Amino acid sequence: TTIVHIVGARPNFVKAAPVVSALRRRGAHQAVVHTGQHYDDRMSAVFFRDLGLPTPDVDLGVGSGSHAAQTAALMVGLEREFVARAPGIVVVYGDVNSTIAAALVAAKLRIPVAHVEAGLRSFDDTMPEEINRRVTDQLSDLCFATSPEAIGHLAAEGVSPDRVHLVGNPMIDTLLANLDRFDVAALRERVDLPERYIAATLHRPANVDDPDTVARLVARLHEIADLVDVVMPVHPRGKAAFERAGLGDHPRVHLLEPLGYLDFVALVRGAAAVVTDSGGVQEETTVLGVPCLTLRPNTERPITITHGTNRLVTESDLLQTVTKVLQGRESEALLDTTPPLWDGRAGERVAAVLSQWSR
Ligand code: UD1
Ligand code: UDP
Question: Which of these, 94, 132, 153, 140, lies nearest to 114 by C-alpha position?
Fold first, then answer.
């Protein structure tokens, strides 16, 4: 039977790559369906090139829209695809709208669903991703967890423990597999990078959708830039709002287009610290040992705080925390304190379970 992977948004590609390649090594029959949720070259195709992912078997071209419009279009396209392909199992990744749409369509067609990165919880329903996570896990026959606390979260929601497999973190598989390809020096030849800098990425609705919030964040980022250069690849979601609020009018704020995976992680690796609201970047900085300041009131990835370099910051304590980190007064985690099973073999563990299931 065919194992069908559903990917659509930037973080999905990074998580699917090691699972797809581990299944390929096992000779599994598989297909990759791209929903088209992300479609710009810099948000999508560059990841397939960087990660050596096979060209998707199909791109549904769904594109952007409100949550309802986008999720509905995703479901219509995926239903057609699943009926035509009759997958033995559908594999979904992370917490984006493509994830929940695929899980819901597959469940109603009685196709088994496997969720990679199950059981993460922020307990904050103002994040659309939290709703996607909870619903996807309820619909999943297999829940692949990246960290131990996920098991308790799933149990508390009535997910039977025999559905849950603690496998580690496929996003970290991708990071470790590419460690010698993250080359800040090579990046410097193409992008004008200051010697010492903070790398910033912001795209959460709570940070980038409201113009007043954006204006306050721009003021804070400009204060940071008075101390140290700030390099920010700008996610398309916040681009217009940040520009309208004058981000980049500061001579030490360097705005870039979204970077491809290898360039972005090189940027992170070379940074004095990272300011972010990304989920994946909290995990990557934990393994790279780069201080991570997460501009959010909570995180679904607390293990990056207990075992890593992450800390939560608010807009009002951001500057102070950056200052402290730059003075090196905070000790950073070492590679050997990284979370259990973040060892580069998660994709292999997922593939082993999937191969059993889809025989
Ligand atoms: C989505 C995910 C989020 C994830 C993020 C990763 C949901 C609900 N959200 O957020 O969890 O952290 O991806 O990056 O699934 N746009 C472009 N070009 C593109 C893609 C998007 O210009 O290739 C712009 C469009 O204006 C679009 C906006 O970005 O309306 C938002 O895109 P969307 O996919 O709805 O959500 P993200 O904010 O990217
Ligand atoms: N990333 C990238 N280029 C960028 C910003 C992020 O390649 O300009 C990578 C990042 O290293 C991680 C993934 O994209 O592997 C995370 O995606 P994002 O922050 O968009 O989503 P989230 O993890 O918040 O859902």
Answer: 140
Q: Would you say the CB of residue 263 lies under 6 angstroms from ligand 2?
A: no
The rounded Å distance from CA 1 to ligand 2 centre is: 32
| 180-337 matches 3-169+342-357 in CATH topology | yes
Report domain extents, the chain.
Answer: 3-169+342-357, 180-337
180-337 belongs to which homologous superfamily? Glycogen Phosphorylase B; (3.40.50.2000)
Here the ipTM equals 0.99
Amino acid found at 109: L
pLDDT of residue 329: 58
- Give CA–CA dist 43/36, Å, rounded: 10
Q: So what's the architecture of 3-169+342-357 in CATH?
A: 3-Layer(aba) Sandwich (3.40)
Q: 292 CA distance to ligand 1 centroid (A)?
A: 22
Per-residue pLDDT reduced to its tens digit, 281-326: 999 999 999 999 999 999 999 999 999 999 999 999 999 999 999 9
CB 274 less than 6 A from any atom of ligand 2:
no
